[in-house]
Amino acid sequence: MDGQTQVNRLDFAQLGVELGERATLVQFSSAFCQPCRATRRTLAEVVAMVDGVVHVEIDAEAHLTLVRALDISRTPTVLVLDASGRIVRRAVGQPRTVDVVAALGRAI
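Above: the chain's sequence. Below: its structure in token form.
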């Protein structure tokens, strides 16, 4: 270990938005990431289907402290948070809608 604390919960102070009533999908993206655009659309579809779920997209390059604390190494990376902000699932790369919905099952 290099002395870094592993973050396992996120909140308004770190994300800049209120958590979803039931769950929050946190997407780390970068400007020239083609799969990030498709991931944004997929997560927006899921949010439209599932009540109480919020999607927040974070520019990885502009939030390096958080990226390092969460050990994000590629974009897109999606974190699924439960209602209290606890990270219950993590996926790297472009997710499929069915996989996001299944991951939400662990958070809700």
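DSSP finds four helices and four strands in the chain.
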